[in-house]
Input
Amino acid sequence: MGGLEGVKMEGSSKETGRTYYDNPIVKDTCWVIDVRGKSEIGNFKARYYFHEKLSFVYFYYDFVSYQVEINLVNFKQLFGKLPIQLINGISLV
Output
């Protein structure tokens, strides 16, 4: 099974304000949600941007020894209109 099976995590989240998010897909004000968590394998912080029509549009995770940032991208603009072959024969157009 997975490496986190049975690991108990505790945390809290709080809406901390609003910010203007300027991205190729979103150019609008979003809610900022800050998260803090801890577990037996370590602590982490996170920040999410939530857009009222598009849902979550930005993710940032700080795991102390490394950080992860996830942004929306325009898939068609990035890869063009050619089919993209993925794992197990699944393709996207």
Residues 9-92 form one domain.
